[in-house]
Amino acid sequence: MNDMDLTLMRLSGAGYCCSQIMLLLGLEETGRSNTDLVRAMAGLCNGLGDCSGPCGVLTGGLCLLAFYAGKGLDHEQEDERLPLLLSELREWFGKTACSEFGGTTCKAILGGECGRPDPQRCGGLLAKTHARVRELLVENGLDPSQGRELPDAF
Questions:
Q1: Which pTM was predicted?
Q2: What are the structural domain ranges in the chain?
Q3: Which of 1, 30, 41, 138 could form a disulfide with 147 if both were Cys (CB 3.0 to 4.6 A apart)?
């Protein structure tokens, strides 16, 4: 068991869903916290709540890319690489990470069983997808240990 496995077990054991875990990994890496953002990510849990939507690992990964490259302040511009980053992750997730499941919905990944995530399948997808997000960031000159600038006051 490696450090990522232990982190995923800790976060999952604390009751966070896949989309929340993806964002928490980025927040922890940048030394930040944002409980409101983590709460909002719950709207992406379990394939948008009923397993019919895209996997929370994918939507969480897309949100994590936007955490690093999206617009968050009036004076900011979205990083011009964001659309390509999002496209590359979506394509990789469907063709590589989920190729054995026949789709990218929670229902497909869980073999038609909506409910509790499968620790083996979901944990593996979380680890692989987080690694791919980090690769995409680094390949595009974005430092995973840094986020966008912080506003002066929250």
A1: 0.92
A2: 3-69+78-139
A3: 30
